[in-house]
Each structure stands twice: as structure tokens, then as C-alpha cells.
Amino acid sequence: MITGLFFGSFNPIHVGHLIIANYMVEYTPVEEVWFVVSPQNPLKDKSLLVNEKHRFEMVKCAIGDDKRFSVSDIEFSMPTPSFTIDTLAVFFKLYPEREFAIIMGADGLSMFEKWKNQEEIVKSCKRYIYPRIEAGKLNEEKVENGTIVAAPLLNISSTFIRKAIKDGKDLRYFVPENVWLYIHRHGLYL
Questions:
Q1: d(CA 69, CA 32)
Q2: How far apart are CA 11 and CA 52, in angstroms?
Q3: Residue 25 is inside which H or E element, if any?
Q4: pTM for the predicted model, two decimal places
Q5: Which domains does the chain have, with CATH numbers?
């Protein structure tokens, strides 16, 4: 069984994340997706993040009882910022019988050379890369131990959603209904 690790801030999780996870399970060898909530991505501004426990709860709300998906808070007990290679080492130790793959966006691919120990990541895990730009601009030959998938091109981002909420916009269909209710119940992103 291949478990896809979908690392992210999920600030907030939105329908685009779920569409990508669904696509991976239905159209690649990945059989399940674990959403790994990162307390702090070293390449992102920490000041924009709501508390990781809120982000974890929003992912739980989003995936509901879909058995193909689960959420992990493994990085909450690790030093911040979170480095993928360190989290992979913990997963490999805890689940030696599992085969893991990384699910990442093409934007992450363009910054991959900045990731800590990226050579080790490439050796230890296959990567499934979904387009966040036109697929024609991605060169699969340059993706070592990775596959660019023909997932739908979605121009939805957590940044857009956060700004829209702050501006008083109603984006209830951009996030799952339970996430929308959670955001409003806790007054997030205002």
C-alpha cells in the first residue's frame, strides 16, 4: 500500500486540497492520503498562520469520515520549523512496513532545491506533483523520482481565501461546509 503524504499549512484547507487528494487516490498508485499539518513551513511567513490546532481541526472537519484520508499532527511534537526530511525519518521509523510518497504542488517543485536534504527525499520517496501552473510549462524529465500528474488545474489558494474572509467576502463554497462553520465559529482570518 502506498500512503501519500500531503504536507501543508492548510491555512485553511480548501476544496482544491481535497480535489487533489481525491485525484491522487483515484488516478495514481497512492491508496490513501495523510494530510500532514505543518506548524511552520520554513519557506513561509509564520505570522500569517492561525494556531496549528485550529488548522488540524479544520482538516479533520474537511475529511470527515472518508476512510481514504486521515490527518496527522506528527510535526506538532517536532522542532520548528518543520523539515520534510525529518518528518519522513519519523514516519519511516514508526511505519517500516509502509511505502510513502510525497504529494506536492508544482510551486514546491520550483523551490525544491531549497528544501533540507532534498537529495535524500528523492532517494527515499516517489513524488507526485500536481500542476499549479499550466502542465505544459512543467518538464517531467527534470523530476527525479517523481511524476507530474494530470490533475485538474485549480487556481484556488489559502492566501486568496484568507484575504477574502478578511475583506468580508462569502466564500462558503471554496471550503467544505464544516470548515466554513468552524472558521466563523472561531472568528478566524478576520
A1: 6
A2: 9
A3: helix 15-27
A4: 0.93
A5: 2-155 (3.40.50.620)
- Our CA dihedral for 160, 81, 147, 34, rounded to 10 degrees, sits at -80
Using one digit for the tens of pLDDT, what is the confidence trace for 29-71? 999 999 999 998 777 777 889 999 999 999 999 999 999 999 9
Q: Which residues pair with 105 in a beta bridge?
A: 130
Angle between helix 52-63 and helix 15-27 axes, rounded to 10 deg: 50
Place of cell 525529518: 86
- Cα Rg of the chain (Å, integer): 16
- The DSSP output letter for 44 is S
Give the pLDDT confidence of 102-129 residue by residue, as tens digits: 999 888 877 888 899 999 999 999 999 9
Q: What are phi and psi of 154, to 5 degrees?
A: -115, 130
**Measured between alpha carbons, how far is 123 from 114 in angstroms, rounded to an integer?**
16
